Every structure is written in C-alpha cells, then in structure tokens.
Amino acid sequence: MVDATKATESLIAMLHKDAGTVRVYEFPGPDVPIRIGENIVMSSFQVSEPQTVRIQVKARKFEFIPDVIQVKAGTPVEPSIVSEDTAHGIACRGLGINERLEKGKETVIRFTPTNAGRYVFSCSVYCGSDHRSMGGELIVN
Ligand SMILES: [Cu+2]
C-alpha cells in the first residue's frame, strides 16, 4: 500500500522473493528482501517528469551567446533564439535541427536529446565574412 500523504517524488524499489501469496506484497512477512551479504538490494528512481530547460540564446555576427550549452540526456530543451542584427540560421545535424532566424524574431526550438555526446551547431544562413566560424556546441551528459 502507498500512503499518498507520505509520498515524495522518488520511490525506492526493493527486490524481494514473492514467497507468500503470489502477487501480494507481504513485508514484513514471508516476502523476504533479496540480499547481497548483509545488504538489501534497492535502487531509487525518479517518477517526476524532467523539467524543461529553457535557454535564451542570442545570435549575431558571428556568434551565438551562449555558445556552449550543457544539458542532461532525456531532459526536454527549449532554446529561444533571437537574432539581433540580420538573418541567421541554426543547424545541428546530430539532432536534425535546421531553423532560419529572422532579425528580431523569437524562434523557439523544442527537442529532447536522448543520447549523451557533443553536438556541434552552426549558422546555416550566410551572414557575412565570418559566417563559417559562427557556431557552438550542445553537450549532453
Ligand atoms: Cu551565418
């Protein structure tokens, strides 16, 4: 039984032998925890939804600010990107993203990176002499 008034956002799972009535959890009782030596085998896990990470990003000749963004795998990410000077773009091949960024207009991209890694992004709309150096990196841990 779960007492909802005592519930928190995390649960503890305890492996046990279903030794009494099958599919009825009888503890304390015949359902004995699985032990390794003296230790009961347990693990905790989150049951709450991961919080969306919202990030304000500026684009301008020839940089993204910030240009390094770190997030956890499985966390929804919502960068809100505004170009300050001219049309730019943001493309990230590893995440299948390519959006045009009009001057002064907010562009919100929503995605959830599932695999850890480093994802390079860059400007995908030609914006001048240093266009090719305009980029950054999303680090997914
Ligand atoms: Cu550019």
Structural features, described:
This protein is 0% helix and 43% strand. By secondary structure, it is mainly beta. The chain folds into 2 domains: 43 residues, no CATH class; 88 residues, Sandwich (Immunoglobulin-like). The strands form 5 sheets. The protein has a 4-stranded mixed sheet with strand order 6-5-8-11, with no helix packed on it. A 3-stranded mixed sheet has the order 7-13-12, with no helix packed on it. The relative contact order is 0.18. The chain binds copper (II) ion (CU).
Task: List the SSEs and their pairings.
Blueprint (H helix, E strand, L loop, with lengths): L9 E5 L20 E2 L2 E2 L1 E5 L6 E8 L2 E3 L2 E4 L5 E7 L4 E5 L4 E5 L4 E3 L8 E6 L12 E6 L1
The structure holds copper (II) ion (CU).
Contiguous uncertain segments of 5+ residues: none
Q: Strand pairing plus helix content: what structural class?
A: mainly beta
Quickly give the CATH architecture of the largest domain: Sandwich
Instruction: Give the total of domains.
Output: 2
Assign the CATH class of the largest domain.
Mainly Beta
Mean pLDDT: 90
Strand arrangement, largest sheet?
6-5-8-11
* Largest sheet data: 4 strands, mixed
> Helix tally?
0
